[in-house]
């Protein structure tokens, strides 16, 4: 598939860390009970690839920024209430010229992580346009989460956390600030999504609905870390 010109592979090869490619191959056969497709969306350079690599490998892809070409994916299996949940996470190119490629993938996604960069006002202002695209191309009941990334860059911040919260509230979606560099809230974001999707897929009629906002709040308090989570 020509459009899956592996962005991660490109980046990793250029950074001399091709072990990621091998790890991806090894993980393909990992056992799982249930699988979901998750997509990362947002402007170019907001940190989508770095958030994915942080979640998958616990590492930060620093150094020169190399834009994703087209779309690529990586798998990660997480435990949710004694079930192995495989997240197939699609990393999309934020650049406008790849938009028609990524549109084709929206309809298969059960969850979308929509990112902006807290040091980039334009990436935040474009969130409304991204939500319009989501409305046009994604499934009606897709799970959406808004992430304000690069929370470690406090000195360069131009988007207040309250602005992110307000926008998320307006659209009724969960929100948190993340840092692919320090790892703050990255795992929590994906786990919350995995739990929501698992509950939707397996919920019995008399079972209470999973409350993703409450879950995020409870985890935030449990970890004693509240920086950047709402
Ligand atoms: N300080 C800091 N830098 C980050 C963070 N996340 C990403 N970056 C940097 O931001 C730049 C862009 O990151 P990418 O993950 O490649 O951005 P992207 O959204 O995948 O960009 P496209 O592939 O063009 O869509 C890189 O130089 C990263 O090192 C973060 O949380 N903190």
Structure commentary:
The chain is an alpha/beta fold. It has a single domain (34-203, 210-222), classed as P-loop containing nucleotide triphosphate hydrolases (Rossmann fold), CATH 3.40.50.300. Helix content is 40%, strand content 20%. The protein has helices at 7-14, 19-27, 48-57, 99-106, 121-125, 127-137, 161-171, 186-202, 212-223; strands at residues 34-41, 71-80, 83-92, 111-117, 143-149, 175-177. Strands 2-3-1-4-5-6 form a six-stranded mixed β-sheet, with helices on both faces. Strand 5 (143-149), helix 7 (161-171) and strand 6 form a beta-alpha-beta unit. It is globular. The N and C termini lie far apart (39 Å). The site of guanosine-5'-triphosphate has 22 residues, from helix 3.
CATH topology, by name, is Rossmann fold
- Give the class from helix and strand content and strand pairing: alpha/beta
Mean pLDDT, to the nearest integer, reads: 85
Major β-sheet, in short?
6 strands, mixed
Rounded to an integer in angstroms, the radius of gyration calculated over CA atoms is: 17 Å
Catalytic activity: GTP + H2O = GDP + phosphate + H(+)
Cofactor: Mg(2+)
GO biological process, one term: protein transport
Enzyme class: hydrolase
Give the structure's gist in a few sentences.
This is small monomeric GTPase. The chain is an alpha/beta fold and 230 residues long.
What's the helix and strand layout?
Layout: H1 7-14, H2 19-27, E1 34-41, H3 48-57, E2 71-80, E3 83-92, H4 99-106, E4 111-117, H5 121-125, H6 127-137, E5 143-149, H7 161-171, E6 175-177, H8 186-202, H9 212-223
Parallel strand pairs: 1-3, 1-4, 4-5, 5-6
Antiparallel strand pairs: 2-3
Helix pairs in contact: 8-9
Bound molecules: guanosine-5'-triphosphate.
């Amino acid at each position: 598939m020509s459009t899956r010109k592996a962005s991660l592979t490109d980046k990793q090869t250029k950074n001399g860390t091709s072990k990621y490619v091998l790890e991806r191959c090894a993980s393909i056969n990992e056992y799982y009970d249930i699988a979901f497709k998750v997509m990362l969306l947002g402007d170019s350079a907001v940190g989508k690839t770095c958030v994915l690599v942080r979640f998958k490998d616990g590492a930060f892809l620093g150094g020169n920024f190399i834009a994703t070409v087209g779309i690529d994916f990586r798998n990660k299996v997480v435990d949710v209430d004694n079930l192995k949940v495989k997240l197939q996470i699609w990393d999309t190119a934020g650049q406008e010229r790849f938009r028609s490629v990524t549109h084709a993938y929206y309809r298969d996604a059960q969850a979308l992580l929509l990112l902006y960069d807290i040091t980039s006002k334009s990436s935040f202002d474009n969130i409304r346009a991204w939500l319009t695209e989501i409305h046009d191309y994604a499934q009606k009941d897709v799970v959406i989460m808004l992430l304000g990334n690069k929370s470690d860059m406090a000195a360069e911040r131009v988007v207040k956390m309250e602005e992110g919260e307000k926008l998320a509230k307006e659209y009724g979606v969960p929100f948190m600030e993340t840092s692919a560099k320090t790892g703050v809230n990255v795992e929590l974001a994906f786990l919350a999504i995995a739990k929501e999707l698992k509950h939707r897929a397996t919920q019995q009629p008399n079972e209470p609905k999973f409350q993703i906002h409450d879950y995020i709040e409870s985890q935030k308090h449990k970890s004693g870390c509240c920086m950047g989570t709402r």
